[in-house]
Amino acid sequence: MYRLQQESEADEPEVEALYDLCFAPGRTALSSYRLREGVDPVRDLCLILRDGEGILAAAIRYWPVRVGGQDALLLGPVAVHPTRQGEGLGAMLILQSLAEAARLGWERVLLVGDLPYYQRFGFRRLDGVVMPPPTNPDRVLGLELRTGAWEGVTGAVMRACPGAD
Ligand SMILES: CC(C)(COP(=O)(O)OP(=O)(O)OC[C@H]1O[C@@H](n2cnc3c(N)ncnc32)[C@H](O)[C@@H]1OP(=O)(O)O)[C@@H](O)C(=O)NCCC(=O)NCCS
């Protein structure tokens, strides 16, 4: 049995440790982290899953970004503890957070990731949306929470104003 909660400040060290475990060393050198620097995450959408004993099993975070003068959500990082992968926890976090994002009025989401995994949630390759280099354009994926929300929205992905979320 897992408990879904919003990430609190007290959870932060455990979430960072989970990300360190699940991603290659130097993850914060990735270009997507430049978009997060000095910007608050969208706290309503930063969710964690703990098991019945309170052990952290999975986490997801989101940041606001700007693309072509429009607001967008940057999904990630999302990670599931290696001993719990393949149980559907990643899907649960992604689906719950996307539903909440839609409820809060967000219209479009992007991420850098594997299409074979994210296409099951409706993500498609985003043509003309450019993440800071070096990013493989085939891994820049988008989802519309409002029909047509990515139509005509192109350009470089930019940091949102610091403090704005
Ligand atoms: C990617 C991740 C979040 C998925 O969470 P999860 O709880 O293990 O996945 P789910 O149980 O929701 O889904 C499992 C399915 O996804 C598939 N899958 C997982 N990662 C995949 C990937 N990178 N590419 C393609 N398919 C993938 C599994 O093969 C499995 O397929 P099946 O349903 O056909 O059996 C998790 O494996 C993880 O934390 N990985 C390490 C960190 C990472 O890569 N994060 C994502 C960065 S883009």
From TrEMBL:
Superkingdom, taxonomy of origin: Bacteria
Keywords, sorted A to Z: Transferase
SUPFAM superfamilies given in the database record: Acyl-CoA N-acyltransferases (Nat)
InterPro entries: Acyl_CoA_acyltransferase (IPR016181), GNAT_dom (IPR000182)
Listed Gene3D superfamilies: 3.40.630.30
Keyword flag Transferase: yes
Domain N-acetyltransferase: 2-146
Keyword Transcription regulation: no
GO function term, MF aspect, one: acyltransferase activity, transferring groups other than amino-acyl groups
Protein name: Putative N-acetyltransferase YhbS
Source species: Albidovulum inexpectatum
